[in-house]
Amino acid sequence: MFSKDTQILLCISSNVSEQENIRNLINGDRNCVFVKSEREALSLLKSRLRPSLILLDLDYPGNDYFALFSRLKSDPVLENTPVIILIPEDSGKEAFFLTIGAADVIRKPLAQEVLNRRIDNVINSQYVNDYLITKMYSYRDSLAEEHKKLVIYTKQIIKSLSSAIDAKDTYTNGHSVRVAEYACEISEAMGYDDKMLEIIYQAGLLHDIGKIGVSDTVLRKPGELNEKEMAAIKQHPIIGHEILSSITEIPLISYGARWHHERYDGKGYPDGLKGDEIPLIPRIICVADAYDAMTSNRSYRRQLSPLEAKEEILRNCGTQFDPEIGKIAASIIEKNISGEISFKNRETTFTSIFSPSNNKALYA
Ligand SMILES: [Fe+2]
């Protein structure tokens, strides 16, 4: 199957006449190197001899062949070099050596055709193995590259969707990105890792996606909404959750849309969940959403300063907001006002959530 000119066989046998016997039996078109001992073999292998196959003649006392075999198999460079063990007819160790990783075990006396065919078989299998491993690594690398492109593409789609949401409501320009970033600041201060922060960022970007299903007249109406209009607005978490429920790989993203208008005291909508019944992500997004709404210019009420918004968040801890999250948000806002911290742009910093293994513990 493969050219024998490039094959080097290393034969380890401490008996000169047996070396001669093997030399005569092995077909002449193979390159054979003979050594007498484990020490000589290791010295050659250390000097970068890379045989296609090692023939280990087990018939002689004084050499610890098992130790040599173990050493070969534990060497990262040589572990894949196949070893054929030649054993005395009555050795009884055939199964043992096959179990510990010999490519083949041949009983003596050696027959020329059997020896050469079995050498061929082992070398051919090794070539196929090496070829498949090389191919596998190459596919893995190209898959990783494709996955990277897919992640970028997915993020771009999510960002475009969030821009579409904000474009529906002229009063809230850039709201989704700001909510996503504030929610990440809060989550980071709560000690969550990058994977969680990334999920929260995407959930924040899409929390108001349900507004796509609410009429522009209602969304853009200056001034207070009547009862019917308010009922239409209150549908947006349900519509958003339905839209995002098709993202089955990361269901947490849809939680932000469904429950970001719930209140800690149970008086929110759409489901009237209370306290810890509200999943963590919407509890965080709820505070971030309120902070951005308070500090943005809206037609129906005065824009608050960050300091006033912080006080408002603290006043509503335990009623509108989760008290722990509200206090953490207030402390971040205070640090931002004093210049101690600045809110980060996180658009390009995340890389992990679109990988196959999402942390199930986050679903609490
Ligand atoms: Fe909303």
From TrEMBL:
It comes from the Bacteria. The modification 4-aspartylphosphate is found at D57. The keyword Phosphoprotein applies. The keyword Transcription does not apply. GO terms for biological process: phosphorelay signal transduction system. Residues 150-345 form the HD-GYP domain. Pfam families: HD_5, Response_reg. CDD domains: HDc. Keywords: Phosphoprotein. InterPro entries: CheY-like_superfamily, Cyclic_di-GMP/3'3'-cGAMP_PDE, HD/PDEase_dom, HD_domain, HD_GYP_dom, HDIG_dom, Sig_transdc_resp-reg_receiver. Residues 172-294 form the HD domain. Residues 8-123 form the Response regulatory domain. PANTHER family: CYCLIC DI-GMP PHOSPHODIESTERASE TM_0186-RELATED, LIPOPROTEIN. May play the central regulatory role in sporulation. It may be an element of the effector pathway responsible for the activation of sporulation genes in response to nutritional stress. Spo0A may act in concert with spo0H (a sigma factor) to control the expression of some genes that are critical to the sporulation process. This is Stage 0 sporulation protein A homolog. It comes from Butyrivibrio proteoclasticus.
